[in-house]
Write a structure and sequence with these properties.
It comes from Fodinisporobacter ferrooxydans. By secondary structure, the chain is of the alpha+beta class. The protein folds into 2 domains: about 220 residues, no CATH class; about 190 residues, Orthogonal Bundle (Serum Albumin, Chain A, Domain 1). The chain has 19 helices and 21 strands. It has a 7-stranded antiparallel β-sheet with strand order 1-20-19-15-14-9-8. Strand 14 and strand 15 form a beta hairpin.
Length: about 525
């Protein structure tokens, strides 16, 4: 991929980083350095990804945790592998059970939305299949930060305070006490620059490292999770943990202007990004900062989300194939709906036939695109006492409508927002990319890919560029540095434009791509405490 490092008309807050031996890009500097430390000790990109991911559960707990899910795309030996480490609904959790308990919808917090955590299984599986160093060595930086503490970084501190205020207001029942003991031990969120540590978190990570995650799913930790769930009437049980295994999956892709853009198949929402790119490749985009470019991107995303929210769920429960959704005929049909004014998106009928992201690469050619999350920041608001495990609330995405594709069913995986991305060209790796942030993620993928491929921006400039996000109906939020004349013209075309002063909701991305000289080029997100560590 060719680009001019200084070509972007808006001043980049950072320049791309170039290196040859190895690179780690993520949203927290201490985690990026932990991954680099593992590379320097003889680990590969897979080991570095695991180290960084585990460290992020400690140094960025506002976005992920040991009790969350994970997905990975791994390039090694000339092949791309996909890992789906998202957990299903507990076997005791059903629509009937919730309705009998008086629920008309799945709550955001508490034990009801808790699904089986998959992240520890992802670390163990990746280490077992592709790693070079023992897991005890790879998780050591995370364990040391948890045991000894670290100073809270600026963006982390802001989100921590925001979460504390929310949980203090809404999470008042006894089962939430351990969250406050763990994350607000002095009766408040830690201040920026203040040290925070979690001995329970360190002990849990040590047990995961020593047993390759067996302790989490079949040992003492599993028993602690089971006991906590039973104590407060939860649905997650030790049987759910015993039965869980992550899945190796075949990545899905579309070809966009000669590049193959890869995503994890459903239950992840990476399909939405591919649906949008499949529509957009039928248009020409001579300029990035043009009204027509923004308008068509927004309309394509709206149509892609309409189809994604209609069909995406556990792939074993989908009523339509991914191949049909990504067919050229369906893309052409949806593309024809895009006119000069904004439309209200509706699902089509195909023809028959709160998250952390990291990227790693090493000098051997291995590359990893990895993402993990508790959802909505800290997740359910629950911490298993004494363990540092904050449990995710992914079950909130299930529908209680019996006719919906993504309806709640025991043992089923829900529509999942977190998605890693990967780019190849002519069957060779270009590299990993991702943009974390709920339903912003596929929108971020589309914008970063187009910034690089259509508009020839380097990885850092592709991330720095101002973003938009479709919310619902005609509502679109834009960052304040999008040119005013474009904002006004989009409004005239029927979009309900809202200029946002908070850039945090527009996603936080990382990119590592290998250029035509075989050199690694990294970019990191200016909207967070992002860092590229390299050597």
């Amino acid at each position: 991929m060719k680009y001019d490092a200084l070509s972007y008309p808006y001043p980049s807050r950072r320049v791309p980083l170039y290196a040859n031996n190895g690179m780690v890009a993520t949203s927290q500097p201490l985690a990026a350095q932990a991954g680099l430390e593992i590379l320097k000790k003889g680990g590969n990109a897979i080991d570095a990804a695991i180290a960084t991911a585990a460290c992020l559960t400690v140094v960025e707990p506002t976005s992920n945790g040991i009790g969350g899910d994970a997905f990975a795309l791994v390039w090694t030996n000339g092949q791309l592998h996909g890992l789906n480490a998202s957990g299903p609904a507990p076997k005791a959790l059903s629509i009937d059970a919730l309705k009998q308990a008086g629920y008309s919808e799945i709550p955001k917090f508490g034990l009801v939305p808790v699904t089986v955590p998959g992240a520890p299984s992802a670390w163990a599986q990746l280490s077992r299949r592709f790693g070079k160093l023992p897991l005890t060595e790879v998780l050591r930086p995370a364990i040391e930060y948890a045991a000894n503490g670290y100073p809270v970084s600026p963006t982390l501190g802001m989100y921590w305070k925001r979460a504390y205020r929310l949980y203090k207001e809404q999470c008042v029942e006894p089962e939430f006490a351990a969250w406050f003991e763990t994350f607000a031990p002095d009766g408040r969120a830690p201040e920026i620059g203040e040290m925070w540590r979690s001995k329970g978190h360190a002990s849990t990570l040590q047990a995961i490292a020593e047993t390759n995650a067996e302790a989490f799913y079949r040992g003492e930790i599993a028993e602690q999770i089971d006991q906590f769930s039973k104590q407060y009437g939860g649905f997650l049980s030790i049987e759910d943990l015993l039965d869980y295994q992550p899945e190796w999956v075949k990545p899905i892709h579309v070809n966009y202007r000669g590049y193959d853009v890869w995503e994890i198949p459903p239950n992840g929402q990476g399909l939405v990004a591919l649906l949008a790119l499949n529509i957009l490749k039928g248009f020409d985009f001579p300029a990035k900062d043009a009204v027509d470019t923004y308008h068509k991107q927004i309309e394509a995303i709206k149509l892609a989300f309409a189809d994604g929210k209609r069909w995406i769920t556990d792939v074993r429960h989908m009523g339509i194939s991914v191949e049909r959704l990504l067919s050229e005929a369906f893309a052409a049909e949806r593309r024809a709906l895009i006119k000069d004014t904004a439309i209200q998106p509706e699902p089509g009928t195909p023809p028959q036939g709160g998250t952390v992201y990291l990227a790693t690469a090493d000098r051997e050619g291995n590359m990893v695109s990895f993402i993990q999350s508790n959802y909505m920041g800290f997740g359910s608001g629950l911490v298993v006492p004494g363990t540092g495990i904050s449990l995710q609330n992914r079950g909130h995405n299930f529908s209680l409508d019996l006719s919906h594709e993504n309806r709640l069913e025991p043992g089923k995986k829900t529509y999942h927002t977190i998605i890693p991305g990967f780019l190849t060209k002519d069957d060779q790796a270009v590299g990993p990319f991702g943009v974390m942030g709920g339903f912003m993620q596929p929108q971020g993928h589309v914008q970063v890919v187009m910034n690089a491929i259509d508009f020839h921006l380097n990885p850092q400039a592709a991330l720095d560029a101002p973003r938009w996000q479709w919310m619902e109906g005609m509502k679109v939020q834009v960052e304040r540095n999008i040119p005013e004349h474009i904002v006004q013209e989009l409004a005239r075309r029927g979009h309900n434009i809202q200029v946002s002063l908070d850039s945090g909701s527009f996603g936080r991305g990382q990119v590592i791509w290998r250029n035509e000289h075989g050199v690694l080029v990294g970019g990191t997100e200016p909207r967070t405490d992002g860092c590229v560590a390299a050597w």
